[in-house]
Write a structure and sequence with these properties.
598 residues; single chain; 2 domains; Serine Threonine Protein Phosphatase 5, Tetratricopeptide repeat; elongated; mainly alpha; 71% helix
Length: 598
Amino acid sequence: MRSYRLALAVVAATAVAVFFGSLDNGFAYDDQGIIVQNPVVTDGDVVAALGQPYWAGEAGVGRLYRPVAQAAFAAQWRAFGGEARAFHMVNVLLHALVATLVAVLCGQLVHRWRPEAEARERAVAALLGGAFFAVHPVHVEAVANVVGQAELWAALGVVGGVVVHLGTRSAEFGARVMGTLGVGTLFAVGFGAKEIAIVLPALLLLIEAGDAGGVRALAGRLLDHLPRVLLLAGVGCSMLVARLDVLGALAGEDVTAALAGLGTMERLAHVFPLWTEYLRLLVWPMTLAADYDPGVVYPASGPSVLQTTLGLAVLIGGLAAIPWCWKRQRLVAVGAAWFAIAILPVSNLLFATGSLMAERTLFLPSVGWSLVVAGLGSRAWSRAARPRTIGLAAVVVALLLGVRSITRVPSWESSFTVMQTLVRDHPTSWRSHKARAEGLVNVGRFEDAAEAYRAGVAALPNRFDMVAATGAFFKEQRRLAEARPYLESAVALQPARPSPWVLLAELELLEGRFREAHSVATRGIASAVESAELWGVLSEAYVGGGLLDAAVRARRVSLALEPGSAQGWTRLAELLEAAGGNPEAIAEARRRAAAEGG
């Protein structure tokens, strides 16, 4: 028992040590939109965070509902005053806790499925599985980037739920009741943090199947745990109802541009190669990326037949290994099945999701890999003539993985370092092209920037932000003919977003096409969510057409949507004066402009 506790302590300390350097990181990448620029978070309003969509960027963007993660960010902002170091400390501590729970799970399962195993073998399994999880480089994105905390809370809910279930399933009545409530609460925490935690009931079923050894016995076990089953079903349904209420739909964010418009077979041809990448990242995670869109995992034109075939072979081979290992090495079989179940919601196999692939989404599925390592390693250790050799090999591998994690952590220091690393390691990524283009603009190399923008669109033609940024660049450069097709494409890709409509209407204004600008603005108002900018550009279209009274009315609507705009109040005063408006109204508009301008 002492060696087991020591193993857990080593796992927790290792997790903290490897990721301690992330405390020097700031808010990077998606941290900006989800945390820094999110009023619900920066106001520290935990209650409001429970009823708001996850993204706080442009209206109409994203359809995610992660109340636990967002409420946690709001609570931390209120507690720490927006100090990035404190957020990162929470991430590190959560990672250490999850790694420790993974170690506990490994020990629990060895004890259950190999009761003849010595206590030291249980400790070895816990140490191997937990330590490999603690140091694995594929976890850097989830731990070293603040928004990865959603993955950490989700994994805490799922792994914690499994551990509590195993610890209380055969306990006395009172402990079983508390265990049931604990599992239900952890499920709510995990599911509320990120959708991937919906797999908890399936993983509990997997663990029960490992115990039961047959379908008939499994059915009986489910009846024994009927209150727990019903509670999990109730929590899951409640979360889905809340999601429907907040988002107006159960579906998640928009389909990733890499899979948009593809039929089922085409989608699968693009998805199968990811399984080769999953395997590589678990076994040899030396090459990592912040982006796994086309241009990184396979060419921008799409995967080759060989890549699709190889990925399919990896998937089929992995699934076939599960029944083969079931009687020979059950922990290994359950580990492989854990990975398959946990990755399914984000794998794009059943349906297209908002991301082709991301390292952060492997955080929970990789628990399965830790179970595989624990099963193989502890068995090899128990059978080895010289167990110290096995231990030395494990230490060497863990050191290699830990060093890679430590060297990877600084790449998430800021948005700049994220993009700098991506451009250096994966220059063919659309994000690399976009980052390079923005850098070239900053130094005045506009023609080179134009080429970089075009290359980014060529890499992923359906990526809205790439297309819109390219159109905006050409518009700012007054290369209006070149800007038009990109802006029209952006409008077609995301008609609910106001920004492309505004850019396209402004382009029409720059060309002196006031009737066309009016048409674009009114279509945008009808198609996109309410936007002060759209009403403002409509007002300017009326000005160009000489309809000053209509321009005043449109400007007033714009100010009703954004009453804090000093520029808007100034423009209203100008329009009122040009239209011969009431002097008192003009004076009031100027007063508001002065007040809002500080």
